[in-house]
Design goal:
Helix content is about 35%, strand content about 25%. With about 160 residues, it is of the alpha+beta class.
């Protein structure tokens, strides 16, 4: 399970170093084989700064879910094309680094500083400035839309 936020650097070759605290788990669960793609949720769609990074077994679960969507449904087709079509396999090297493809770096408007955000079974990868702006928006906003759908959630 991945949790927490890590500020990391994007190097000149477009690589990030996975924080040490996650490396052993990623080597154990997927031998460092990961899949990176564009994010499609209300926080990320249409806004720069967000990619999804999945360990291969979690990615394969998502692929199975997407493969079961109706073939003739327009939204399902768009979702498959967007998520699967932009997916790229990437292997963590012995130093814990992985290359973010240039097209995905451009899509997410990534500069030098990156926020790696644990999301239980995957990570979100944000340009740090976009992450900080989005975080501020969430903190100051009063958007409670969909809160009722969560049911009896308590902390």
């Amino acid at each position: 399970m991945f949790r927490g936020i890590s500020a990391i650097n994007l190097d000149a070759k477009g690589r990030i170093a996975i924080p040490t605290r996650y490396r052993d788990e990623l080597r154990d669960c997927c031998e460092g084989q990961l899949v990176i793609t564009v994010a499609v949720n209300e926080q990320c769609v249409g806004e720069p700064g967000c990619l999804w990074l999945y360990p291969l077994p979690e990615w394969e679960k998502l692929e199975q879910t997407l493969s079961k969507l109706p073939t003739l449904n327009k939204m399902a087709g768009k979702l498959r094309r967007f998520v699967i079509g932009n997916a790229s396999e990437c292997d963590m090297d012995p130093q814990g680094r992985l290359l973010i493809p240039e097209t995905l770096r451009e899509f997410a408007n990534m500069k030098k500083r990156i926020a790696l955000v644990g999301q239980l079974n995957k990570f979100e990868i944000w340009d740090e400035a976009a992450w900080l702006a989005k975080q501020q928006e969430w903190m100051t906003g009063n958007d409670n839309e969909g809160l009722d759908e969560l049911g009896p959630l308590s902390f």
